[in-house]
From TrEMBL:
Pfam families linked to this entry: Peptidase_U32
Taxon lineage: Bacteria, Pseudomonadati, Spirochaetota, Spirochaetia, Spirochaetales
Name of this chain's protein: U32 family peptidase
Length: 683
């Protein structure tokens, strides 16, 4: 059996020490920018350089996370950063943005490319596309079943990395827009505010409806090892060193005993994991158990073992104390706890400085702003704390390399060809999710209709051969951005059938879609989920033969204009109206939740749409910049999308939007999303 890599998170020097000393073969870490965990401490340049040298001396590997998208204004900084990494020499970089991969291939080919789970690769077809683009490893999305992973392993030579332990996202990997919608703190920029962990309200009841349990695949390690997975990855760059050490030691134990008594080793590893003080555990989609196995609306979104609610308080500031009921868990000075406000408005970690046991209960120190009714969880005990030999050199003085101040080389796209300008006409395109909604569009006909290619649409078109209210030349199919291995055999049969029937226009939203159309006469548009936030990613997508592109929904006006040169603006679609899919969830949640409408602590309202094909969460308040159409035309853009996909389309709503568009008026009760203010940046 080929040796399998145990890959651990290093969110701090202390976590690095714990990971290596407990037996990790490799670590992954981020520096101060361009990584998906900007809220953790991360590493200074001198620390990183010292870590690379010492880890390589120890025979260990180190990977750097460069797994966020970058904007055009940041191209020089990204170039400088990649040049610095090429000099230092980590064993690979984990990337999301196609612009990063293009920059690496052209200028820093010594850097090995690993595709982040944020790239949303869930199929062998997607992995093979990346292999042809110079990637050596892909981190598969977390939403796959064991059988899907097995099939992917059989159909690609790419190294596969699998998350086996840690926190989960309820949304499909790389497709969550919720945090970004709430204030520009995008998960694609490392600023996720964990909207899935929040308390939501349905009528008079509240619950953590979208907060999943933590992943634990210790039972599946033997199967993953047997099928030839290259690396088992532990999530947790924001977790403590004690947590990292505990989890690494458990997975190290099972890996070291795969050739021995597996059953006994598994039991011993599970016993170690009882002390990770995290959320309840799940195998997620791995065993296809359904959402009830990983969603519990009564389970608070934070980590730790519940100690109960604060019953009484006394004192203030540093003398603030809260009383808890006595439990079987002994609380000691030096233990770490996590406190949650009862209205979910605040969460804080706190190291206990005082413990007093009385007949009434246990009084402990708490932060000054917590009160009666707030919940307390223990996340680490003093007894767990271990001191490990340091990995970093004691003297970091010799490690002085830093990114320079170079300017990124200019990119030159080929000139647009005259014959390509008319593949898609100028004007308004309207997108819907259901065939019946196409009839609504006939009341004010757009130049083209876009229809989500769902199983229902496939049955109507391919099985029943239903006549549609738009001609084949007027209809564009929008392919779903999530492309699991199980859908590959279906789409690889259906796409040729659609082409044979004369349907030739498609929006592709996943890497895997590209090879479905190789050698065909299909007319393709790169969808918003291919994330062309900079000219480098724009050029990389262009190189795949995708001349037309839809600007990402998270984009802003300034970045759009900086990214797209004037000659290519007629080839770029801009969405003027949409109900953005904030969560895209693979599971059908209708078996658990009968509600559709819910709200958050600020009384913002959202809608849950579930079907056998999965679930979406959309805002009740849509995104709209329809009053900016004239400005965009003056800037050179000429193709626009009104995206009504998601909820069923009502004729009155459609006519209202079209009337406002015609009159150049802004729509009431809408949001600009990031159009005006852009992504959130730290002050």
């Amino acid at each position: 059996m080929k040796e399998i890599e145990l890959l651990a998170p290093a969110g701090s020097p202390e976590a690095l020490d714990a990971a290596i000393n407990e037996g990790a073969d490799a670590v992954y870490l981020g520096l101060k920018n361009f990584n998906a965990r900007l809220r953790t401490s991360n590493f200074a340049y001198s620390q990183f350089e010292g870590a690379v040298k010492n880890l390589h001396r120890m025979g260990k590997k180190i990977y750097v996370t460069v797994n966020t998208v970058f904007e055009q204004r940041e191209a020089d900084r990204m170039y400088q950063f990649l040049k610095y990494l090429a000099v230092i020499g980590p064993d690979g970089i984990i990337v999301q943005d196609f612009g990063v991969s293009r920059m690496v291939r052209q200028h820093f080919p010594t850097l090995k490319l690993h595709a982040s789970t944020q790239m949303n690769v869930s199929s062998s077809r997607g992995a093979n596309v990346l292999s042809r683009q110079g990637f050596s490893r892909v981190v598969l999305s977390r939403e796959l079943t064991l059988e899907e992973i097995r099939t992917i392993r059989e159909r690609t030579t790419m190294e596969l990395e699998i998350f086996v332990h840690g926190a989960l996202c309820v949304s499909e990997s790389g497709l969550c827009l919720f945090s970004s919608y709430l204030g520009g703190k995008s998960a694609n920029r490392g600023m996720c505010t964990q909207a899935c962990r929040r308390l939501y309200r349905v009528n008079d009841e509240s619950g953590y409806y979208f907060s999943p349990a933590d992943l634990q695949l210790i039972d599946q390690v033997p199967a993953l090892a047997d099928m030839g997975i290259a690396s088992l990855k532990i999530e947790g760059r924001m977790k403590s060193a004690e947590y990292v050490g505990t989890v690494v030691s458990a997975y190290r134990h099972i890996l070291d005993n795969l050739d021995g008594n597996r059953e006994q080793a598994l039991a011993e590893a599970k016993a170690i994991l009882k002390h990770d003080f995290a959320r309840p555990k799940t195998s997620f989609y791995m065993e296809a158990e359904g959402p009830a196995a990983w969603l519990d609306p009564n389970q608070a979104g934070g980590t730790g073992i519940p100690l109960g609610k604060i019953l009484k308080v006394r004192g203030a500031e540093s003398e603030r104390r809260g009383m808890l009921s006595k439990t079987s868990i002994t609380i000691e000075t030096g233990d770490s706890i996590r406190l949650h406000k009862r209205d979910d408005s605040d969460r804080q970690s706190h190291k206990i400085s005082s413990v007093e046991t009385t007949d009434e209960g246990v009084w402990i120190s708490i932060p000054d702003n917590f009160d009666v009714g707030d919940s307390v969880y223990i996340i680490q005990t003093r007894a767990m704390t271990k001191r490990y030999p340091a990995v970093l050199p004691k003297d970091l003085g010799p490690y002085r390399k830093m990114p320079g101040h170079e300017t990124a080389p200019a990119l030159q796209l080929p000139k647009p060809q005259k014959q390509d300008r008319d593949l898609f006409p100028e004007g308004i395109y309207a997108a819907v999710s259901r065939i019946e909604d196409l009839y609504v569009l006939q009341s004010v006909k757009p130049v083209r209709a876009m229809l989500s290619y769902t199983r229902a649409a496939a049955r109507a078109i391919l099985d029943r051969r239903e006549a549609l209210p738009f001609s084949k030349n007027e209809l564009i199919f929008v392919l779903d951005p999530y492309y699991p291995e199980s859908i590959d055999s279906i789409l690889s049969e259906e796409i040729p059938q659609l082409l044979a029937l004369g349907y030739r226009q498609f929006v592709v939203n996943n890497l895997a879609h590209l090879s479905l159309f190789r050698g065909t006469e299909a007319r393709l548009i790169a969808g918003p989920y291919l994330y062309t936030f900079n000219s480098w990613s724009f050029a990389q997508i262009h190189e795949q033969g995708l001349l037309y592109k839809v600007s990402p929904l998270e984009n802003n006006r300034q970045n759009l204009e900086r990214t797209v040169s004037e000659e290519w603006r007629p080839f770029t679609f801009v969405t003027l109206f949409a109900y953005p899919a904030l969560f895209r969830i693979r599971a059908d949640l209708s078996s658990m939740y009968q509600f559709q409408y819910f709200s958050d602590g600020k009384d913002e309202k959202f809608r849950l749409l579930s079907s056998s094909e999965g679930s979406l969460v959309v805002p009740e308040q849509p995104f709209s910049i329809i009053d900016k159409e004239t400005f965009l035309k003056e800037a050179g853009f000429s193709r626009f999308i009104l995206d009504f996909s998601g909820p069923p389309l009502k004729k009155v709503d459609y006519k209202d939007v079209m009337a406002a568009l015609k009159g150049g008026k802004s729509l009431p009760n809408t949001t600009r999303f990031n159009w005006k203010d852009g992504f959130y940046t730290n002050p």
